[in-house]
Amino acid sequence: MMAERLQQICSAVVLILILALFGFLFWFALPVFINPNSSTFSLAWQPEQGQFGILSMLAASCLLGLVALIIALPVALGVCGFCQLEQYKKYSVWIRRLIRFMAGIPTVVYGIAAVFLLVPFIRETFNQGSGFSLLAASLMLVLLILPVMVMVLDAYCQPLTARLSQTAASMGFTSPQLLFHVTLPAAKPAICSAALLGFSRAIGDTLLPLMLAGNAPQLASSLFDSVRALTAHIGLVIATEHGSAEYNSLFAAGFLLLCINLFITLSVRKLGQSQQQGAGKKVRSDLALATTQVTNVNTSINTQSCSDNRQTT
């Protein structure tokens, strides 16, 4: 009873702090939203001309997250799928340890390594720009979000595979067939959750875009262009004039980032609830469908073998 009351008090404190954060950012960003002549929601960031647009930075943040997600999602699915295969069980232990180790590496380590290794490689290989680009930041963001995505997928797939392995073996499934016909189709909500969390982690990071993206407030036309992410923009711009357009634009940028993260968090929770409700039905239907497919494949193989034997005879 005491523990439950303490949990309720802690939850209420956290909720109040989050609401206070929302209120704080919204209050300082309010002049931007109610001023019809505000230039904050434009593409031009030219402080010397009184232009304080943040949309190019918002687009850069979304583009960085999207590129990193497109690269990281197939890799995360491949790593997670490899760890579910029975024949590679002894290797999967070390891979999971490596993923957990990657999750604990400070972001600045990735950034320093990329400045001295990845950026010169991109500059000398593609001969376009300085190397500080959308591509360099996205590639390092892949390393940042990959552990999160793999751990989310593995947390769902590992117990499901363990629970179904004996049943699947009794039906004639091999380990890859169980993975591709049952486990991965049933893990679609987990895949969506991993993708959303990875995207949220990518657009919320500050240091890697700040060190690697080039910090040019412009729209990117290629992967080799320099861009400035919204998080890096907040870190770079120093506005001390209280109530100025530049000052308020930073709070608008923070409020937008917070709203995006809130939307992603609520989406992940919604997916998690639907995953719990529909997981049992989904697994049973996928298992029945996969059984039919495997039976058809085996029947086809047996028919083909009999035909070959008759021709040989």
Automatic annotation (TrEMBL):
A GO BP annotation: phosphate ion transport
Any one Gene Ontology cellular component term annotated for this protein: plasma membrane
Keyword annotations: Cell membrane, Membrane, Phosphate transport, Transmembrane, Transmembrane helix, Transport
Compartments where located: Cell membrane
Transmembrane segments: 12-34, 54-80, 101-122, 134-157, 178-199, 250-268
A Pfam entry, by short name: BPD_transp_1
Domain ABC transmembrane type-1: 58-268
Recorded topology in the membrane: Multi-pass membrane protein
Cell membrane recorded as keyword: yes
Family indicated by similarity: Belongs to the binding-protein-dependent transport system permease family. CysTW subfamily.
Protein name: ABC transporter permease subunit
